[in-house]
Specification:
The structure is a single chain. The chain contains 4 helices and 15 strands. By secondary structure, it is of the alpha+beta class. Helix 1 packs antiparallel against helix 2 and helix 3 packs antiparallel against helix 4. Bound molecules: 2-amino-4-trifluoromethylsulfanyl-butyric acid and cobalt (II) ion. 2-amino-4-trifluoromethylsulfanyl-butyric acid binds next to strand 4.
Length: 253
């Protein structure tokens, strides 16, 4: 499928889908504490989506069994919520979810600390979030897609962290995953498509404290770091604008 360019009408629906998702993330953030199960967070997230008139877009996606992907510590992405996965002080937890509103998708991820966390864990979370903002500085009409990838890579490199390569960001619209796919590491000899106003993209660095290699657990979903190091994930849905800065659709304005 080609990269889709959204009309102003479509962008308005994407804005609404994004705004609702930002509120959902806020509701989930508010309940993060030692002692809560990841299944409880999933229930709260699903309810927060549905009460706003959204449909969770993770649920049943290729058989994924929940509404929120919840990944704890060395889990990178796509962790499955469970009643007996109980968050404890010092954990870090990534919440990745999205919704459909009037046919249009939004998608965003956040990583939070549970209670007091180590300085190193907080730094990983902060640097991951910052790398998103460094990347989207290049998300401008006329630039090339992989300018974003290169900026994320260049920002992460000095910290010595790993950048997951097997999973990428993506276009989004009437489908959760549309072209183009957006790697978080530098592409050599390739510049990617030219960015145009009306493109809507999910930029989502997945960063590890140790080596970048990952493995899948036997549940066929959960992605973990091979070396057991912590991982963080930060994602927003953005729109390329006719001029200047991209518009971030999944934050509260
Ligand atoms: N929101 C995630 C993404 O960007 C996960 C999709 S739903 C899942 O791809 F089923 F894959 F978990
Ligand atoms: Co995504």
């Amino acid at each position: 499928m080609p990269v889709t360019i959204k009309s102003e009408e479509e962008l308005n629906l994407m804005r609404k889908a994004g705004e609702l998702l930002a509120q959902v993330h806020e509701e989930m953030h508010d309940v993060i504490r030692p002692g809560i199960s990841t299944l409880e967070i999933d229930r709260i997230g699903e309810e927060a989506i549905r009460k706003r008139g959204g449909i969770p877009n993770c649920k049943d996606y290729e058989g994924y069994p929940a509404s929120v992907c919840i990944s704890v510590n060395d889990e990178v992405v796509h962790g499955i919520p469970k009643e007996d996965t109980i968050l404890k002080e010092g954990d870090i937890v990534s919440l990745d979810t999205g919704l459909i509103y009037k046919g249009y998708h939004s998608d965003a991820a956040r990583t939070w600390g549970v209670g007091n966390i180590s300085e190193q864990a907080q730094k990983l979370i902060d640097v991951t979030e910052k790398s998103f903002f460094e990347g989207i500085k290049y998300a401008k009409a006329g630039n090339r897609l992989y300018d974003i990838s290169k900026a994320i890579d260049a920002f992460i490199k000095p910290y010595g962290y790993g950048i997951v390569r097997e999973l990428t960001g993506h276009g989004i619209g009437t489908e959760l995953h549309e072209e183009p796919y957006i790697p978080n590491y530098r592409q050599f000899l390739k510049r990617g498509i030219k960015l145009e106003a009306g493109m809507t993209l999910c930029v989502e660095p997945m960063i590890t404290m140790g080596k970048r290699k990952i493995a899948f657990l036997d549940d066929e979903w959960t992605v973990v770091t091979l070396d057991g190091s912590l991982a963080a994930h930060y994602e927003n849905t953005i729109a390329i604008t006719p001029s200047g800065e991209p518009e971030i659709l999944t934050i509260i304005k």
